[in-house]
Amino acid sequence: MALIFPKSTDKYVRLGALALAVAALGGGALAMYVGLPSVIMTGYQPQQPVPYSHKLHVGDLGMDCYYCHYTADKSDHAAVPATEVCMNCHTRVKPTSPRLEKVRDSYNTGKPVEWVRVHRVPDFVFFNHQAHVTAGVSCVSCHGRVDQMVEVKQVQPLNMAFCLDCHRNPAPNIRPIDQVTNLAWKPNGDPAAIGREIIKARGINPPENCSGCHR
Amino acid sequence: MIQITKKLTGKKYWRSLDQFYQTTEFQNWINREFPSEAAEMLDEPSRRNILKLMGASFALGGLTACRRPIENILPFSKNVEGFIHGKPLYYNTVMSLGGQAVGLSVETNEFRPTKIEGNPAHPWSLGSTKSYHQASVLSLYDDSRGVGVIGDGKASNWDAFTAYVKNLQGQLGNGAGLRFLSEPIHSPSFAAVKRHAMTRFPGAKWVEYSAVQTSATAHPTVPRIAFDKAAVVVALDSDFLGLDDTSVLAVKEFSRGRKITDEANPVMNRLYAVEPQFTVTGAAADHRFRLKASEIPNFATALLGALQAQSSPLQVLGQNNASKALSAIAKDLLANRGKAVVVTGPRQSAAVHQIVHQINQALGAVGPIVTYLPATTDQTRPQLDAMKELAGEMAAGQVNTLVMLGWNPVFTAPADLSFEANLKKVANTIYLAQDADETAAVSKWVVPAAHYLESWGDAVAVDGTASIQQPTIQPLWGGRTPAEIAALVSGYKDQHAYDIVRNHWLPIAGGEKGWKKALHDGLIRNATGAATTATASTTPTFHTSAPAPTPASGFEVIFAPSWSLFDGRFANNGWLQELPDPMTKLTWDNAAFISPASATKLGVIGGDVISIERNGRKLEAAVMIQPGQADDTILLPVGYGRAKVGAIGEGTGFNAYSIRTTDGFGYGTGFNVSKTGRTYPLARTQEFEYQEEPHLVNFQEVAVRPILREGTLDQYKKNPHFAEQMVEHPPLRSLYGDYDYSKGQQWAMTIDLNSCIGCNACMVACQAENNIGVVGKEQVARGREMHWIRIDRYYSGAIEEPQAVTAPVTCMQCETAPCENVCPVAATVHSPEGLNDMVYNRCVGTRYCSNNCPYKVRRFNFLNWHSNEHEVTRMVYNPEVTVRMRGVMEKCTYCVQRIQNAKIAAKAENRRWLKDGEVNVACAQACPSDCITFGNVNDPESRVAKTKLSPRNYAMLGELNTKPRTTYLAKLRNPNPELVSAAPAAEAHHG
Fold it and tell me: Which ipTM value was assigned to this complex?
């Protein structure tokens, strides 16, 4: 085959390679740090269109997670509630608050409130809320103390290592099903021991093979 | 392409003529991992190209990925009853095609219909579907459907159209110049609108026309044949398992008589096929004889004579294998009197149907096996007579308004009616168009038609079972139904499809409750709760006005619907275009199929363009050589060669309608054929995925490795384990330790080759379920098609009159999978439940796995097949399955998404094991012959565990110690002993 590039380009290629090596060393160290899932994923806290406070509704008023996220034990998705659900109360409670204007607009016009997604896994991961919630994994394991958050923030990296840690050793994160939405649950005794008992009793066996989550 | 004058070499199975003659092209082909050019860069490497690619890599690898993109969640404003985000909803509906209404169950995800299944409660579906039903969901999202309302060539709207029609109504008077042209109406509510229109305009006429003939074309009474009650079936030019019938019932019933249910005392039916083309019915037959379509009437007469013991009936017949076998067939039929039936196809004239009725009377089949049902349409005239009259009236200027409600009459009307030219003499033409097709181009008003998945309607199956067609989505492009247009033109009391349908059925179904139940069940029960059905009789009537074409010298041309496009309406459906024809394995085109002897006579090879001419009408089409076809006969599937069609169907195939006339509608005689000297590329999937066969390595005929194993019923009775014993191999031991699969649920599959007819339904079902890309003709020619499940079709025996066998082949989920140990990045690994998992996000595209797969079932995304799809077309995707990118390997997963979802649902109920049948794979669910069984092999009560115990069970290439989870049940044929000893031709070419 004929030469595609003239021989004189060799010099530039060598110089370029050296420059690249230097840049790679410095850049690589930096990239490794900022690329850590714990750095890049946790702490994400976008501003929501409506200043809805989980702390007020859940922590102070004591609403249950299922009131709004009512498909968490029935489906893949934990349902961001329809505007209607907000208006169940807010037709009476603070019906004229300016902070709820977008909610009322949505209810009247039929257009959705454009919430910003906080927790997400890549498209090739098929996470299923139903499977976890019905097995006794609490909301708090992945989402943290949402009942103390004024604005929701991602507290766990939600990367594959995070998932696998629990799939390999689920006991510390398994609790009685009626305590799943009790984010402040403190058992008497070792939570892992309680978890092990539930796992044994119900035959919980989280998949560790690829097609458990990727398909 | 091959020269067919070379010397024959022979061996048991062959897939194509190239293989049969061992051409160098074929040898090169099988020695490669992927076919020629599949893996090569398409452009020559050049400085310019390399710099271009480098530039692109820098641009893409930039800093754009630093910020996390904002993603919104948009919940409903008000909740929708019964809807849970992430859970599919199912709606029962009905699809009518080619005179058959098949009840369906449609899966919708987030209100998008994504998958079609059969409705198990519907008697003409019983839970199964054909490829057309499966693929119809893609047509819903076809962006070429968005034609809008067009008036006088300019974009208009429905209001303007309504005003135009109101104005027109005043001018119509008693309707003397008004004509309606629709497809045969199987919808009772539409028929009510039609009756109203005929009362409102007593001078008007309504013509029903379908380019695809059905058995109703010859009969006003439709024969209903209970194949499960027949021990001997003779099919005379009848493709009852294939294209004669768009419902699945014949396949269901026939395969019931084909399955070995009692292994100790096996019984099977026997099928003889006498036919001009090689159909899937012929492939399933125990004895198949080729005979020209014009000789079928004589054969039927002779068979009737032989049954009635008349003197020397054979004198009318020429010398061919079919005639030689005739007396043996007659003897077999008489021996099974009361359990034997003869059927013929819609291509044959009413006279032949009459003879066949007499034969069935003589056999005592009329009544027990054959009954006649009243036609579900109220058209009593033969459709061609009505079309001829309409064309004559149009030519004479007696028609001033023509309302065209059926699909594309300009394209499908018989060529001698000059429909397009006559249409120009009609002042007001209204056309309800699926897309901007040939008829839309010459119509004054074009209005968009609604797809059956987005509109209200109803349909009656042949036995009288009525179903409501309920929409699953709002019309995507504002389409309306034929009944709505007819209601508008005639001023019917109801104007919207919902009212037309509902008000018709409300009194019959017994009010609101009955209506809701009809929608839920997918079929209408009357006030007493019984399904609506028709009364069968034993006395048929026949249309006698259309005689059979007179035999003439020259070539015969037989017309058949296309396995892909039906009558052409699916031309813009990529799934169907890419679906290989079950016998010829041709994709993206039709061709002029001729026998090897005819090809030699004409001096042509596959890909040569020939000219087919009669009475000044000429068609130039590419030749493809089809073993087993009758000599001097050209098969032309209709529907291809569309002049005006969306981007997908553009430039595919040759328009067979251009030489199809009223005097040769099913088949025509006396065609002159000549060679043009030009060639045309045809893309087949035939040689692809050729499996490794060691006996071909040194091009010598060594021992044959039986991939598909078949035997006869007698052989099976003598030695039930014959299939396992066909291969001798050393003890199978693995270098690695064996994994313990005795615990938990272990997924497995069996495929019963005895009942597979090769109909392709599984292929489209898999494509729809698993978001499989469409690659296009050029890429198919490079061997890059993506079907996860394919149907292998092997011939055996003599080239002129071979036997064929079909088998679905997909990933075998080997327990010791050869693909797994060669993957450098562990992107394909084993799951504890025995699945060979394919992890797309790990795959780096080395293609080692495919190289090492003995079954050649892995598919590589050479390009991003989904990049050019319209955003509406993307709505068809199954949200449960990843859409794969370029550079990633993929393959059958045993529908792992279905398994996982079923397991999650079961675990939520505290059940650890799924019940048998709780999860099914898409291919098995669609299969009309129920040849695929899937389930948990560790559950001894499961169907799959039981079928694995069959003595016919064998592992394809099991001697490689791959331990496949998918195994096959060997095919059995039930030949007539008299014919086996008399004609050993089928076995003559053993290697």
Answer: 0.85
